[in-house]
TrEMBL record:
Molecular function terms from GO: calcium ion binding
Alphabetically ordered keywords of this record: Calcium
Location of the EF-hand domain: 45-80
A Pfam family assignment: EF-hand_7
UniProt organism field: Alexandrium catenella
Domain of life: Eukaryota
Keyword Transport found: no
Transmembrane segments: none
The keyword Amino-acid biosynthesis is assigned to this record: no
Protein name as annotated: EF-hand domain-containing protein
Region listing for Disordered, in residue ranges: 85-108
Length: 198
């Protein structure tokens, strides 16, 4: 009602179930743990659609993900694990006490990360993730995609090309550290979610 009376959205349905189908939900990335963003990026790069990721994890095909299905499938895909992630986290950490904790390096660490993401998705706290709960990933992905596009446009406007922006950065062994990424974003006056994009 507020959207209709204040914002002029006169064509919104009154019934909640109809309203849910009309709206496209987004997410605020500052409220999303970095582990969730990293697992989401992994899923987006390994599956054509996020629904395919859900179906791949749903081993018993009951339309729900239990903790065991989730962890077992993503461990098999090597999600959120390995020395590479640990090196990235340590290299990119802006300093002690930062939000960039040391990355997962063992299968136990991997399971902890996947469990934390599982709990984030299980909004009903019933021990299972429904397809509807899994759709949280879609809202987060929309916001992350939009933020990356906005950063790209600002970099192009400021530097003329992404290659020129890359050339101005001080690289460490051919890679850009977080501190340099933050400087580039500052130069082009990008005020979006840097940690999540990085």
């Amino acid at each position: 009602r507020l959207a209709a009376s204040v914002a002029g959205w006169t064509s919104l349905p009154e019934e909640n179930n109809k309203l849910h189908h009309v709206l496209c939900w987004w997410s605020v990335l500052d409220d999303v743990p970095l582990e969730v963003v990293r697992v989401l990026v992994f899923l987006v790069t390994h599956f054509r659609e996020l629904g395919d990721a859900f179906n791949a994890c749903d081993a018993n095909k009951d339309g729900m993900l239990n903790h065991k299905e989730w962890v077992k499938k993503l461990q098999a895909l090597n999600c959120a694990a390995g020395a590479r992630l640990q090196r990235e986290h340590q290299r990119d950490s802006p300093g002690p006490g930062s939000e960039f904790a040391a990355g997962p390096g063992t299968s136990h660490d991997q399971e902890e990360v996947l469990t934390a993401v599982y709990r984030f998705l299980d909004t009903s706290n019933d021990g299972d993730i429904s397809k509807k709960e899994f759709e949280i990933f879609n809202a987060i992905w929309r916001e992350l995609s939009q933020s990356m596009w906005e950063l790209k446009m600002k970099l192009l406007h400021t530097f003329g090309s992404l290659e020129q922006a890359w050339a101005t950065a001080e690289l460490h062994e051919g890679e850009m550290p977080y501190s340099e990424f933050a400087l580039l974003a500052g130069e082009c006056q990008f005020d979006g979610p840097l940690k999540q994009i990085f």
